[in-house]
Structure formats: C-alpha cells, structure tokens
Amino acid sequence: MASASTPDPLPATELPAPYGSGPAGTGTSAASTDPQSTGPTGSSPVKRVRTHHLQAAKDNGSKFAMLTAYDQYAAQIFDEAGIEVLLIGDSAANNVLGYQTSLPITMDEMVIFSRAVSTAAHRAVVVADLPFGSYEASPAQAIESSVRLMKEGRVHAVKMEGGAYYADTVRALTAAGIPVMAHIGFTPQSEHALGGYRVQGRGAAQQALVDDAVALAEAGAFCVLMEMVPAEAAAAVDAAVRVPTIGIGAGKATTGQVLVWQDMAGLRTGHIAKFVKQYADLHSVLANAAAAFGDDVRNGTFPGPEHSF
C-alpha cells in the first residue's frame, strides 16, 4: 500500500522538465514532484522521469537521451544537464575497471556503481545492466539478481541482453514488479558467440531482429535498445513495437539515443566507433590540468600562501 504522503499519479503526457526550467528563480520543474527526488543539496525538488514518460515520448513523436554513468559526479552532471535516462552499463568493465571486455564484471561491482549513480541522480530514470552470468540460468536467477540491483543498487529498472529466447525471463521479471529494458542487435556479452564486434540484422536477418523485439515487448519490456544494427532494420523494429526504442549505432528512427559517456566526452582515446560523436575533449583537458599541477609542485609554486593555513 502506498504511503499517505505519496502524491496522486500524474498524466504521462510529456517528459518532466530539466533543472532550471520551472518558474523563474526556482531552478526546478513547475510540475509536481516525486517525494524521493529531492534534488541536489539546498535545491528544491524535481520531478522524476518514469518509464511512462519514455512511452509518452514514443507516443508523441518526441525524443529522449541516455548516457552511461558509473559514479556520483558524472551522474549528477548528466542529471542536471537534463539527460532523461542514466545507464549503469556493464561497460564499466571496459571504461572504469580496465578489463578488455564487459564479461568479467561482477554483480557486486555492479551494485556499487549502481548505488553511486542512483544516489546522485534526482531526475533521470536509472537503469542497470544485468551482468554476464547473472540471469542466463533461469528466470529465478534473473529475479534474484534484479532484486539486488533494485534493493542494494537502488536502480529503477534493469537492462538485459538477448532475444526472444528470454521472453519468459522478461515476463517473470515484469510480473515481479521489475521494469525491464531489452537489448538486442549486437549484444556485447555474446561477442565471442557473435564472432566479435559485428553489425547485426543485415539483410534477411532483419526479420529475426524484428521478431526478437516484438517477443520481448509483448513479454513486458518497457523499452527495446538496439546496438549496431542498420538504420533500416532499426526503423523496422521501431515501427513493429509500441514501446520506445533506443539506438546506439542504429540510425535516427529510435525514440532515444545512448552513448558511453567516456566516448561522448572524449575521455577515452584510440579507435572510436563510427556511431560515436564526441562533444568534448576531456582527455586533453585532464592531461593538461595534471601536467600543470605536476609542474607547479615540482617548481614550488603550489601550494602558495593562499593554499596554506
């Protein structure tokens, strides 16, 4: 039973406004607020994005953005910037822990990253990946793992890789009250079975992609993410399912778009995938700052009198 302090549900007609878009001087949305979304310290409450807002975006023909986040500062910055969905991806394995693939990351590690992001984000809906080995054995295993991410990691939904084979697992999760984002196309946890990082859904394989999406949506997935699929195939999937779709290397037809934040912000160097657009060069910014700090320490200009007690 809901607490007496829980507000009445609001119509799912549009995405909640970002920070700073409410009445002048308030720094918040003018809409009613989620009692659990109190905003950053010292600020007024903000309205939480919910899965039904993402559905409304699909219904209204509007778009939303999604970024990965693995720590409190990235989560807070992206949340305040108006990003609607934050993903604690198992890509933390590659982008935080230094592994070569996403396969080694553990549930315990995912819980820690999830708690950091969910604590810092006050507007975005927070989704966490079910890591490799945490759901494949059975729907019961998937429920147990998802409960950990929601209870300990405090996320709002989970993301699970795989096609129609996992429809029963999605059905069991949603029946247990766990929102599920499906992930089809190139699924990094299956990179060895797929023969490496290869575009999926070309030619005749497009219909299989559509069939996977339909099966997962009908099983209860609130959203379908597609990775590295031809734009034409992604458009066919988006047209075949009522739920919103999210693309990464999947063209423009999807309702949402997602990028790994270290790719988007230019923190990671080396080969960059074709579907990545870099919006900053944080690698150079941080490298220059670190070099300047080192120089100041070595030549004795830091700390100065103003930095001393």
UniProtKB/TrEMBL annotation:
Enzyme class, first EC level, given as a word: transferase
Key word Metal-binding present: yes
Cofactor entry: Mg(2+)
Positions with a binding annotation for 3-methyl-2-oxobutanoate: 90-91, 129, 159
Ligand binding (Mg(2+)): 90, 129, 161
Region annotation (Disordered) ranges: 1-48
GO BP terms: pantothenate biosynthetic process
Skewed-composition ranges (Low complexity): 16-33
Pathway named in the protein's UniProt entry: Cofactor biosynthesis; (R)-pantothenate biosynthesis; (R)-pantoate from 3-methyl-2-oxobutanoate: step 1/2
Catalytic activity field: (6R)-5,10-methylene-5,6,7,8-tetrahydrofolate + 3-methyl-2-oxobutanoate + H2O = 2-dehydropantoate + (6S)-5,6,7,8-tetrahydrofolate
Classification via HAMAP family: PanB
Protein name, UniProt field: 3-methyl-2-oxobutanoate hydroxymethyltransferase
Organism: Arthrobacter terrae
Gene: panB
